[in-house]
Design a protein that fits this description.
Length: 706
């Protein structure tokens, strides 16, 4: 039975200290099973599913001939729009596969091949003959076609905002920066590709049920989304995600392959099926970050204080399903400009659906905003750190609320001290070492502190001083199992070794998605609420079997204050004067993120974010051929990411603090802030090194040789 309860701050004993990952032994010994290798289904060997994808960007399947595939040894069945199970709900265009002959983007699933081995399934897929009636398509984002105004941008934010007379403020500014900044399409590329094992079976209570083992960031979200599509009640879908090899947002919501696995399993029920999305297929089917075009105008007075700000964004969505990234959102609250305007416009294209990628909105938006601030500092004759300090707001510019905690100035000053910023030459292109121009740059970082609703946790006395704690959240490799064990231990007043934690199963109490840097805040607050209620009802010496399920009430901070984390990123860049090659020997992030609950897992998250931001700055770029709609950079040989040789001295530290107004643990989220501002810091450092201002990512060598 669920009981809503408030929570009081927890006295830290384990929290804030190093605890080795509780799942470490399973991972390093290879005993941890991921979705595609799951042994959860013990009724028969699974069939293997291979996806047949469209080779046109728009049109209809005219003819699909499976004969050659069915004749191939090991192939059991081929499903297409004429033979697949009918879906109960087709409103989600991304998930409504194999229901009609329409093709909405290149790479869409048009058939499934089921075989006894993955090799037979793959060969069978190559033998399926498909002909199309092709139609004209549009698959290129341009300034002239990104004109559609969405109702909201992710997550349900206002598309446009305006405060004050922006045009008058900018017209009267003593200093004006007006530039356009661009970021490319990026693909998430977690180490573990997306995969699903599916099985339909008869259940004595609920009739037919669907059992999924899925590589996902939220098991309950998969059940709640896929169930209605298939005409199933929530009790008829069980989803598990015992181990997940990363997601970066791409596994935050189910994509078409999950429905494909369910359709395939339905055709051969009760035999299970196994579907592993290949690295190449991920570039069409599992989400990506849209390219963005940011038109920024910053106006300041003679002292460098902002008087007006405008951030107009153009990006893309898919004709089959709308997704609008909130790219201008950080410009609404970052600095104290009395007049501000932001807007988002979309190009509706015949392409795959964009989706979440680490720090959606904040990552590309802060690249534009923080490079523009660097340009404003130069135009105003101010040090870039000083310019940011002069524009600190007293209240949140967007809501007018006081900030719960805003320690960006402390991050900037601490980072400047550690980085030796005082010795930085004022003028760009002032330092050369051999064939390398050397420069330094800075950018601010921010990310909202969020808690998601709909979380419950269960605490059970196991006897002998041990406790079971259950919550249906997912650890995607971030260390959630470890940190939640520490939170539960402190809330119950026991050592972490006395806590048996269960996660990642829809049969456990409901939990929100591992996304938006909200996991620890949401789940941890819920675990604390359940533990405190358990202690109130059963005391410190409970009888074995005593049990409480509870959820956490909202804290006052969630409605009364503006809740954000902040940081400052400092970068040293070296640019070869002959080749334009960029190297980054030093990268430092200093963050204000509340109490750090485990310094080892926290540092891993922050450094990982910095490395991902460095990767975006220097390498990451997906290319879609507008003539065909095909993503040509569809593997890790052509879609470049940072490797060990690119990552030299990367460090992260945090300010000592505790935000108990926001969570009873005193923590805020840390998963995404590390990537925010990092690409801007690198770009600003390359300008300081060379005097060449590059306003488009990635910072490839050719851009410094013009």
């Amino acid at each position: 039975m669920s009981t809503r309860t408030s929570t009081t701050p927890v006295t830290p004993r384990s929290m804030g200290t190093r605890l080795d990952r509780v799942d470490g032994p399973e991972k390093v010994t290879g005993r941890a099973t991921y979705a595609v290798e799951s042994a959860a289904h013990d009724t028969g060997d699974p069939l293997h599913v291979w996806l047949v994808q469209s080779t046109v960007a728009k049109g209809e399947v005219e003819r699909l001939d499976p004969a050659a595939a069915l004749a191939h040894p090991g192939v059991v069945a081929v499903l297409d729009h004429t033979s697949a199970m009918r879906l109960a709900d087709t409103d989600d265009g991304e998930l409504a596969i194999l229901q009609d002959p329409r093709v909405h983007f290149r790479g869409q699933v048009v058939a499934l091949v089921l075989a006894e081995t993955s090799e037979a399934a793959r060969e069978g897929a190559a033998l399926v003959e498909v002909s199309y009636r092709e139609e004209p398509h549009e698959a290129e984002l341009r300034e002239d076609n990104a004109t559609y105004r969405p109702e909201t941008v992710n997550p349900a934010m206002d598309t446009d905002t305006e405060d004050g007379d922006v045009d008058a403020a900018l017209a009267g500014a003593a200093v004006l920066v007006e530039q356009t900044y661009r970021t490319p399409h990026e693909h998430n590329n977690p180490m573990e590709p997306h995969a699903t094992v599916a099985r339909w079976a008869q259940d004595g209570t609920d009739g037919e049920v669907l059992d999924l083992v899925d590589s996902t960031q939220g098991v309950h979200g998969v059940a709640q989304t896929v169930g209605p599509v298939l005409g199933l009640e929530a009790t008829q879908v069980r989803v598990r995600a015992p181990y997940v090899g990363g997601g970066f947002g791409s596994k935050g919501q189910p994509h078409a392959h999950v429905v494909a696995a369910a359709l395939a399993a339905h055709a051969v029920r009760p035999r299970p099926v196994r579907l592993a999305v290949t690295r190449q297929q991920m570039f069409a089917l599992t989400g990506y970050r849209t390219a963005t075009i940011s038109h920024v105008r910053l106006g300041a007075d003679a002292d460098g204080r902002l008087v007006g700000l405008e951030h107009r964004v153009q990006e893309q969505t898919s004709a089959v399903k709308e997704f609008a990234e909130q790219t201008a959102s950080p410009s609404r609250m970052m600095y104290a400009a009395p007049a501000r305007r932001t807007s988002h416009r979309l190009a509706v294209l015949d392409v795959a659906v964009p989706s979440w990628m680490r720090a959606p909105g904040e990552m590309p938006g802060m690249f534009a905003g923080e490079v523009a601030m660097d340009e404003l500092a130069l135009a105003s004759g101010l040090d870039p750190v000083e310019l940011r300090l002069r524009n600190e707001p007293d209240l949140d510019p967007e809501t007018g609320k006081p900030f719960d905690v805003r320690r960006l100035p402390d991050c900037l000053r601490r980072g400047a001290e550690r980085f030796g910023w005082a010795d930085r030459p004022r003028e760009p292109r002032s330092r050369r070492e051999g064939d390398w121009w050397v420069g330094t740059g800075v950018a601010a970082a921010t990310y909202p502190a969020m808690k998601m609703p709909g979380n419950e946790a269960r605490v059970t006395a196991l006897g002998g001083g041990r406790y079971g704690v259950a919550i249906g959240c997912v650890d995607i490799g971030t260390g959630a199992r470890t940190v939640l064990t520490q939170i539960a231990a402190d809330a119950l007043g026991v050592d972490p070794g006395a806590v048996d934690l269960e996660v990642a199963d829809t049969r456990l109490p409901s939990a929100s998605v591992a996304g938006g840097s909200s996991g620890t805040s949401s789940w941890g607050s819920t675990v604390v609420a359940a533990a405190q209620r358990f202690r109130e009802e059963h005391g410190a010496d409970p009888a074995p079997g005593a049990e409480v399920t509870a959820s956490a009430a909202k804290s006052p901070a969630e409605t009364e204050t503006a809740n954000h984390s902040f940081g400052a990123v400092f970068c040293e860049a070296r640019v070869n004067r002959w080749t334009g090659e960029v190297r980054v020997p030093r990268l430092l992030g200093v963050y204000s993120v509340g109490r750090v609950l485990n310094p080892v897992t926290a540092r891993s998250q922050l450094v990982g974010g910095l490395v991902m931001g460095l990767s975006a700055a220097l390498f990451e770029e997906s290319w879609r051929d507008p003539r065909t709609g095909h993503v040509v950079t569809q593997d890790l040989a052509s879609y470049h990411v940072a490797a060990h040789a690119d990552v030299l001295d990367v460090d992260a530290e945090w300010l000592e603090e505790s935000d108990e107004a926001f969570t009873p643990m005193g923590s805020r989220g840390i998963g995404e802030i590390g990537i925010v501002g990092t690409a801007a810091a690198v770009a600003n450092a390359t300008h300081h090194a060379t005097g060449v201002r590059v306003r488009e990512l990635p910072l490839t060598p050719d851009r410094f040789l013009s």
